[in-house]
Amino acid sequence: MTKSRVEAFTDGVIAILITILVLDLHAPTATSWAALGELGEPFFAYVVSFIAIAIYWNNHHHLYQTVKKINGAVLWANTALLFWLSLLPFATAWVGEHLTAFLPELVYAVISLMCGLTYNLLNRCLVSVNGPQSSVAVISRHDRKRWLSLLIYLIGCILTLLWPLAGLGASLVVSVLWFIPNQRVEQEFK
Amino acid sequence: MTKSRVEAFTDGVIAILITILVLDLHAPTATSWAALGELGEPFFAYVVSFIAIAIYWNNHHHLYQTVKKINGAVLWANTALLFWLSLLPFATAWVGEHLTAFLPELVYAVISLMCGLTYNLLNRCLVSVNGPQSSVAVISRHDRKRWLSLLIYLIGCILTLLWPLAGLGASLVVSVLWFIPNQRVEQEFK
Amino acid sequence: MTKSRVEAFTDGVIAILITILVLDLHAPTATSWAALGELGEPFFAYVVSFIAIAIYWNNHHHLYQTVKKINGAVLWANTALLFWLSLLPFATAWVGEHLTAFLPELVYAVISLMCGLTYNLLNRCLVSVNGPQSSVAVISRHDRKRWLSLLIYLIGCILTLLWPLAGLGASLVVSVLWFIPNQRVEQEFK
Amino acid sequence: MTKSRVEAFTDGVIAILITILVLDLHAPTATSWAALGELGEPFFAYVVSFIAIAIYWNNHHHLYQTVKKINGAVLWANTALLFWLSLLPFATAWVGEHLTAFLPELVYAVISLMCGLTYNLLNRCLVSVNGPQSSVAVISRHDRKRWLSLLIYLIGCILTLLWPLAGLGASLVVSVLWFIPNQRVEQEFK
């Protein structure tokens, strides 16, 4: 099975997801600074989600670079990742309207956690099909960032009970963590 | 004629279809569990359609892998499939708002059936242009799943008269049936 | 300059245009046959535009197959074609709500005419850069269908004064004309 | 690292951005010339943004043609450019409704300036990773158009205080400036 069409399809879906985020940034009816200011909270949620999706694309790009083989399980793990990513525009629109409300932030944090879990599942499927000696397996072996991300998302879910903004906050912290792509991948390809 | 641009265009349309489904999942105005609960039915319809479209992409991917030649008839059968798939977001939005109403479920079931029929038509056109000795012909010969799917969609259409949910139900049953891609294709490419 | 990225960008834009057409097919609030029936006119406009855009993609696909070189003029003619195609979802939404009104049909007909004109411009630019001995020049030389299409669009514009439906009608007639792709192209590539 | 997936992802995002612009061109409820005339201002803003985004795609296309290597910094500069471009549909919708209002025009001008700045940043990152002897460095060395564009955007921002239309105006002037792609790139590839 060829990986190029999976990459192309994933690129397509992620490109559309990152772009339709902006559809929930409605143009104000007035033209005052106050009207623009009301967009502050939706805009903050927009920026957080834009960066999160960009990082998933970036990591997906790096992950597949090292991949030789894919199979049906990889295809389904990839689809599961896309499913949870596809819910981010919905969660972003909701949380952007209610930045300090518990439930929208919890939903955002849970969807973020599910994206992280399905990304890990995808990584595991790719390692499994390519074997323990493959590049993707070697690079993934000591990759603590993925487990740390899941932990941060989980803490974000729990913290929303006390401090709702922890939902978006957890996503931001993970983004900072992933901002620099895996050095091991880049070195492998030098 | 090259198949790669047809694949790319189909990937593009399917990627957009699967993504704009989420545009009908509107963020609630309130932030209560009750407000979130009201999204239960649209979300169920969303999941069913997401899986259905993902499976069409998956099968399309597998089908074209075995293909050597395409012609004008293939292009039009492919367009007909995309046309019926393009109506799924509309049907999903309607059925999601009225999960137990007869007419939305019937419309959903009929559109599902038409997607299945045009997929079969596309398969037949590909076999016809590649000849009876081609990989695509050999793999398609004993493929009873395609005919079973059409039967399930048809039964779904009829059952909506008694039990409206049969519309989405038929789509779910077919998805389970197709969840594992055709083993013959994978073996052929080992 | 490579033609592949122009093809990919054009495929992307056309795939999105053909897909967002469906966003104007709003799910009815009721679940009666009468409510569904009210979608008849928007649906008719949807089908006409879907076929028209599919044919533009199809012809664009065939046209570029024969092309060896592109330049800046080709890029701009291609962009002009995409600009006029991008207005079709707007015109389709308007005409679908007012199927027998003069102005929406005239606007639809004029946009159709502009799509046809810019497609001809693109064809001419491709012939010019590839030279009179190129495949694209040979195939284009006796291609009366392109001029006939422009004439039909123009007649459509004028006829809307007497019979508004001529706007969508002209598009349908041209679609029938183009349904079978240029035989010369297929023969050239046998 | 391969540049082709970055190109594909960028093409996808830009294709979607240029297409969803049209979603803010709402079909009028009436069918009179007056109703159509009210679309004049949103349509003008639509045309200006369509051309601006088309030029960014065009220049991005030319820029990457000369590129051999990319790295993480290029990926992030590319993402920053896409972020600012992704705000153009929002700004276009707002400015289209209030063509002569100060704040929407200022926001449009500032977003245009940020697009220009991130494009320059991307160019600089590409030069840095490919080295001073690379094609991209040679072509970029004497490219005064990029700096002139930034100056025009900046003047546009300031002029909106006196003459609001300077926001869209600056974008139009820059578009005229870039209409003809960099001659040096084309010559390099002859």
Automatic annotation (TrEMBL), chains A, B, C, D:
Catalytic activity: K(+)(in) = K(+)(out)
Protein's UniProt name: TMEM175 family protein
Keywords noted in UniProt: Ion channel, Ion transport, Membrane, Potassium, Potassium channel, Potassium transport, Transmembrane, Transmembrane helix, Transport
Pfam families: TMEM175
Major location (coarse): membrane
InterPro entries hit by this protein: TMEM175-like (IPR010617)
Residues spanning the membrane: 12-36, 42-58, 70-94, 106-126, 147-180
Compartments reported by the entry: Membrane
Membrane topology field: Multi-pass membrane protein
Family: Belongs to the TMEM175 family.
